[in-house]
Amino acid sequence: MASGLAPLASAVLDAVTAAGGEAVASTDVAASQGVPHSVLVDTALKTLSAREALTLTPVSHEAWVLTAEGATYAAAGSPEAQLVRHLAAATGGQSLPNVDAALGAGVRKIGMQQAMRLGWVVMDRPTKTLALGAGLSADALPTDDVAAALNTLRDGGGDAAAAAATGVDEATRKALQKRKLATPKTTKTFAITPGARIADARRPQATELSREMLDSGSWRGAAFKPYNFAAKGKDVAGGHLHTLLKVREQFRLIFLEMGFSEMDSARYVESSFWNFDALFQPQQHPARDEHDTFFLSSPATATLPEGAGDYVARVKAAHCGGEAGAAVTGGSRGYRYAWSAAEARKNILRTHTTAVTARMLQRLAADTASAGGVFTPAKMFSIDRVFRNETLDATHLAEFHQIEGMVADHNLSLGHLKGVIHTFFKKMGMDRLRFKPTHNPYTEPSLEVHAFHPGLNKWVEVGNSGMFRPEMLLPMGLPPDVRVIAWGLSLERPTMIKYGVQNIRDLFGHKIDLEAIQRNPICRITF
Ligand code: PHE
User: Fewer CB atoms near the end CB (10 Å): N or C, the chain?
Assistant: First the structure.
C-alpha cells in the first residue's frame, strides 16, 4: 500500500470522493464493505477524522429490536392468537391441561390473560374449560395485530421512522415494549463529509520534522500529522507513597500545627538503659525478657552515658532506693534491688519511641544546667518504628510505628494532659474522649485514651498517656517543678481504620498489595 492507508480507510475516502461533497452515511459504507459498523468506526473513521481527512457528524437513530420472546411470536403468532386458533380448530370447550398439551403452559397462560381481556376467549368457571368469545368462529377470527407489528419492526430493520410509516404507531410500540416483546435501541452512526485535509489523506503522515527533511527540502511537500492536543498523558507509574507514610505526614502536620517540633528518632538499636532504665522500668520487668524484646548479639552492648555527669549513678540510685535513692528522687522508695550496669548496657531494638523522648528530656536537663538552671519549655513529637517480639497475627507484627507527643513545662497538671490530648484528637474529628486509668512503669498517673469513632460508630482505644514519674525526671536533673506530659499511639491502627485494611500483613511487610499502594488516595485525617 503506497498510500500507507488500510483498505477500509481507502474505501471510505473513495466513497466520500465519489459523493462529490454530499454526506455519506457510515452505515452505507459499512454495508457496502461488508464489515460491522463498529469495525468501520474503530479502524478507519476515527483515524481519518483525527487526521482531518474526514468530518464526522454524529447521527443518532432510534431503532426497535425484538426480544427473543418477541421473535418467537413474530413467527408463530401472539399467544392470544395461538390460543384463539387452537380453540377455533377444536370442537367444544377445552380443558386447561388439554390446551397446555397443545400450546405449552407458558403460551396458554399469557394467551388466556390477553385473550380474556380482549373478549376473544371465555372461561366456563364450573368446568374450567375455555371456549371462543361471542361472535368468533373459525371463519371469523380476530386479526393478530401484535404479530403483525412485530413482523413490521423486524422486516423494516427496526427503524422507528419506517415502523411509524407502515402503521406501527407509538402506542403500539410502547405496548410491545411493556410486554417485553420489543425494545427501543439508540444507535449512533455518522454522516461523513470531506475534511480540510482530505487531499493529504493518502500520503504518509510525517510525525516529526527531521534534519533530513530540512536538508533535502522534502518538508515543503510533506503531510504532517496534526497535533492531538486532546490526547491524555501517560500515567506515570512511579514514586507512590506507602499508605503509612501518607498517614504519618498527616499526623506530622497536626503536631506542627500545635507548635510541636520533631525529635531525631533515627536509632532503631537502643541500649536497654535508654529504653528501660532511664524510664524507671525495673530490670526484672517482664517486658525486658527476650520473649518481649529483641536483643542484639552483635554489638551486644552499648556504652552508658557516663559522660552525662552522674546521671547513670542517679538512675541506679532511683532504682535501688534507700537513702541515696530518696535523695535523688525526692523521697521515692525505689524498687530496692541490686541494679546492674551490665543489664542496662544490653543492646536491643527499641520497644517504644519513649526511649527517644527519654534521651530528649535528659538533653533538656543538660541544657538547663548549661543555662544556669533556666529551663526552656518544650513540645516535641516523634513518629517512627519500634520492635516487639510478638506472636504475629492479623493485627500484630514484630515491627510497627509509634506516634508520640511530649510537653515539658513548669507545673503542668493532669488537666493539661487531657487538654492537649483533646486538641490532638479533635484535629482528627474525634471530640468525644474518655480516659481510663492504666499502668506504665514510667508514668503516674497513667491514662488510656478511648475515643468515640464516628465512622465505626463505637468507642475505640486510641492511645496511652501519662505524666512522667519524678523517679524518671529528677535523676536527669530537671528542675523539681518541671512536669512532663506525654502520650503515644500506633500509626498502623488509625491507618488500618482509615484505609479499611483488615490484615496488617496487607499493609506492611513482604505480602503488601503494591497496587493498593498505588491506588490509595491521599490521606485526610477525619474519622
Ligand atoms: N510508651 C507507651 C507505649 O509503648 C506509650 C506512652 C508514651 C505512654 C508516653 C505514656 C507516655 O505504649
Answer: N
Alpha-carbon span 464 to 489, nearest angstrom: 6
Q: What's the sign of the alpha-carbon dihedral 56, 57, 60, 65?
A: negative
Output the pLDDT for position 2.
Answer: 37
The residues near 526 (Cβ < 8 Å, ≥ 6 apart) are: 428, 429
| Rounded CA separation 317/300 (Å) | 25
Other Cβ atoms within 10 Å of 304 Cβ, number: 21
Contacts with 173 (C-beta within 8 Å, 6 or more apart), sequence order: 64, 149, 153, 160, 163, 182, 184
CA nearest neighbour of 451 among 443, 463, 437, 441: 463
Beta carbons of 449 and 421 less than 8 angstroms apart: yes
Q: How far apart are CA 57 and CA 189, in angstroms?
A: 8
H runs (alpha helix) in 376-508: 414-426, 470-476, 492-499
- Rounded to whole angstroms, how far apart are CA atoms 112 and 118? 10
- Amino acid (one-letter) located at 413: S
- Residue 359 CB contacts under 8 Å (≥ 6 apart), including other chains: 274, 278
For ligand 1, whether the C-beta of 440 sits within 6 Å is yes
Atom of ligand 1 nearest to the CA of 351: 4
Which run of H or E residues covers position 89? helix 79-89
Pair 405, 412: CB distance under 8 Å: no
Are 352 and 285 a contacting pair, CB within 8 Å? no
Name which residue sits closest to atom 9 of ligand 1, judged by CA: 487
Query: Is residue 436 a contact partner of residue 527, using CB atoms and an 8 Å limit?
Result: no
On whether the CB atoms of residues 164 and 49 are closer than 8 A, the answer is: no
Give the mean pLDDT per block of 10 residues along the chain (527 residues): 70 92 92 91 92 92 89 95 94 91 94 95 92 90 94 78 77 93 90 91 86 94 84 82 92 96 97 98 94 95 90 97 95 96 98 98 96 97 96 90 98 96 89 95 96 85 96 97 96 87 89 86 77
Which cell numbers in the block locate residue 152?
413490521
Q: What angle separates helix 96-103 from helix 79-89, to the nearest 10 degrees?
A: 110
**Ligand 1 pocket, residue 353 CB under 6 Å:** no
Work out which ligand 1 atom sits closest to the CA atom of 465. 10
Contact 319/330 with Cβ under 8 angstroms? no
Q: Is the CB of 271 under 6 A from ligand 1?
A: no
